[in-house]
Design brief:
The chain is of the alpha/beta class. Among the domains are: about 10-105, Orthogonal Bundle (Arc Repressor Mutant, subunit A); about 290-460, Rossmann fold (3-Layer(aba) Sandwich); about 465-515; about 520-655, Arc Repressor Mutant, subunit A. The chain is built from 29 helices and twelve strands. Strands 7-8-9-6-10 form a five-stranded parallel beta sheet, with helices on both faces.
């Protein structure tokens, strides 16, 4: 945030509380005032009542003038934080609900820390080790001491302090992982040793220390560290190491390269076992979704902090919903969350004759199956007759990401259960992300309405822009000069774009372009799904150059003009026609066949069938008073031997200039 003198104001909680204007630290006054500022920062923009502030600052031993003292501290803080204000402050505001500190998230060092960690995890997943190391060093360099400083032991600060300390430990473990992958054992071993000293009962840190020592050529010491931890765990908690750590110990004994081979990422808390991993994103890199991934990163941060988050991802088939879910799953797993995904629709391999399968039940089954030793489902949870209550109970045990794909295919009873689940989940470390094609589907309208009242994140995946395709080509070390033609051909659809990029460069665009097999199959299926009347509209439009001309189609024999609007709507719903608004007037425009749909439709016609269509269109054009001569001439030539018999004046247009409206030359 900018102050009146143009300096940037930054707030720090990763150490003693501080506020910097540019490079200058503000004088925040006595200890009680600094604790008050910390209290407001921890509340993250939400108001705190005067009574609650007094209780939190003095913790039960309030002086008589506590309220007056708080008001005075607030006044001094306003003067320091908002020196150029005119009238009421926009930074430290007051209302009937209490006092609140309104600052942008990017002004906090905690936000910078979390964003750097997410960037480091992404870099590590992509194999950019040096970049990951730099971002981790940058993130950990923000720490100036114990989180929250003087306020750390106050009751209001305990939860935030625990969250920040856990995030710091995760980051340091990730740092050790990167150091091991870079074979920098001179740093990896001492860093891992400090981790076990700071958190002596955290298995993840001990596992990393064992890996670092083994990779450094010190297997005997790795075994000794395991014995040290085993003895410590037995003495302090009366427990044995987890099966995952025991497997690691056995791998060191056997020099098992399958387990001790390349480190694929920080194991993360609670994930030492070799449980099934979430899907790793495949295919082209994720481009054009920066805003959506930023929203989902914020969702993950909220879950790690102990909050409940819902999100709805929508978009047409092939818009990249599944790809975005894969990316989110990978990021969630790296942040230490359990990840489960179920699909809507029916159970069974082919869905034939099977009863609808409730996603609530499948989520519960998946959580039990994926985490058999850690699910915590004791007799109480296992015997719950209500799957909604059982799932809500299970989700409260550890941070988890639940993904519900194809939500628009679930039945009414499933939607009712999901609505109940949304009402039960409160302050539960869980994110539920629902993906569907159409948010207007009647069976999910009630559920979506309930979610809208709970601050759900809504992500509508729009078509890719040319700039996105250019970025993708650059990442693939290809010339982005084809970006515009590729995006036009793919109609901004990520799936179609990915299929085009599978073709050799000379087959993607231009005269030698081909329709990818997978795309052709899908288009054929969509065409088969509309009525014979709608197919007739589509093939006539394809032969006429791809641009819909309702007036001309209405003149064709056997066509019912009253039916044409409905047929066009059916084709648009099937994704076989798209609307192109005029740049100067958004209400004006025309319907057009997408480029690949156009080519597939032409490919379904026999030579004689195409000539008959050209002939019919030529006859209809002759009835127009102002028919385009070039367009008519193109149809007459393309009709070949099936050219209709026309009046002499019109017949002369056969020799005029023109092109084949179908796009052929």
């Amino acid at each position: 945030m900018d102050t009146s003198d143009g300096s940037i104001m930054r707030y720090g909680l990763l150490g003693p509380v501080e506020v910097l204007r540019g490079a200058t630290a503000l004088d925040l006054g006595p200890r009680q005032r600094r604790v008050l500022l910390t209290r407001l920062l921890v509340q993250d923009g939400h108001p705190v009542s005067l009574a609650e502030i007094c209780r939190d600052l003095w913790e039960g031993d309030q002086p008589r003038a506590a309220a007056s003292s708080v008001r005075a501290h607030v006044s001094r803080l306003r003067s320091a934080l908002d020196p150029g204000r005119q009238g009421r402050s926009d930074v430290l505001v007051s209302s009937k609900a209490g006092y609140a500190l309104r600052i942008p998230p990017e002004a906090r060092d905690t936000t910078a820390f979390e964003e750097s960690i997410l960037a480091a995890r992404t870099a590590l997943r992509q194999g950019h080790l040096e970049r990951a190391r730099q971002r981790l060093d940058q993130a950990l360099g923000l720490w100036r001491g114990p989180a929250l400083g003087e306020a750390a032991d106050h009751a209001f600060a305990l939860r935030e302090k625990a969250r920040l300390n856990a995030a710091r430990q995760d980051a340091r473990e990730l740092q050790v992982t990167v150091l091991i992958k870079q074979a920098d054992f001179d740093r990896a071993v001492p860093t891992a040793t400090r981790l076990t000293a700071d958190a002596p009962l955290r298995e993840t840190s001990w596992a990393l220390l064992m890996r670092a020592l083994y990779a450094a050529g010190r297997p005997a010491q790795s075994l000794r560290e395991y014995e040290r931890f085993r003895a410590l765990l037995a003495r302090e908690l009366g427990l044995d190491p987890s099966p995952g750590l025991r497997d690691l110990h056995m791998a060191v004994l056997r020099h098992d390269a399958d387990i001790l081979g390349p480190v694929l990422g920080a194991p993360g808390p609670h994930r030492l076992t070799t449980a099934p991993s979430p899907p790793v994103p495949t295919g082209p890199p994720l481009v054009g979704r920066a805003e959506e991934t930023a929203q989902l990163d914020g969702l993950l941060r909220a879950v790690v902090a102990g909050g409940t988050q819902w999100a709805v991802v929508s978009g047409e088939a092939g818009s990249g919903k599944t790809r975005l879910l894969d990316e989110l799953a990978a990021r969630a797993a790296e942040a230490g969350l359990r990840v489960v995904r179920v699909r809507g629709g029916r159970s069974g391999a082919d869905g034939q004759g099977a009863a609808p399968s409730c996603p609530v039940v499948r989520l519960l089954d998946e959580l039990r199956r994926r985490e058999p030793e850690e699910s915590g489902l004791g007799a109480e949870a296992a015997t719950r007759p209500d799957p909604v209550e059982a799932l809500a109970h299970e989700l409260g045990r550890a941070p988890v990401l639940c993904q519900l794909d194809d939500l628009d295919e679930v039945g009414p009873e499933s939607c009712t259960r999901l609505r109940r689940l949304a009402g039960l989940l409160r302050d539960t470390p869980a994110a539920v992300v629902c993906a569907l094609r159409d948010t207007g589907t009647p069976q999910v309208s009630g559920l979506l309405a309930d979610l809208a009242r709970q601050g759900t994140a809504w992500l509508r995946l729009e078509p890719l822009a040319t700039e996105d395709v250019a970025e993708l080509l650059t990442v693939r070390n290809e010339d982005p000069v084809e970006a515009e033609a590729l995006n036009r051909r793919a109609a901004g659809n990520p799936f179609v774009l990915a299929e085009l990029l599978r073709l050799p460069p000379g087959r993607r665009t231009g005269p030698g372009a081909r329709v990818p097999s997978a795309v052709g199959t899908i288009v054929h299926d969509r065409v088969a799904g509309v009525s014979a009347e709608a197919r007739s509209v589509l093939v006539h439009t394809a032969v006429d150059g791809g641009r819909l001309d309702l007036g001309l189609l209405a003149e064709l024999p056997g066509t019912s003009p009253d039916r044409l609007p409905t047929l066009v709507d059916d084709a648009v719903t099937a994704g076989l026609l798209v609307w192109h608004p005029d740049r100067s007037d958004p209400l004006a425009g025309h319907y057009q066949l997408p480029e690949l749909v156009h080519e597939v439709l032409l490919g379904t016609l026999t030579p004689s069938g195409r000539q008959l269509l050209h002939s019919a269109l030529a006859r209809a054009l002759t009835d127009r008073e102002a028919a385009d001569p070039a367009r008519l001439a193109g149809h007459l030539r393309a009709a070949g031997p099936l050219v209709p018999v026309l009046p002499a004046a019109l017949r002369r247009t056969r020799t005029g200039a023109g092109t084949d409206p179908s796009g052929e030359h």
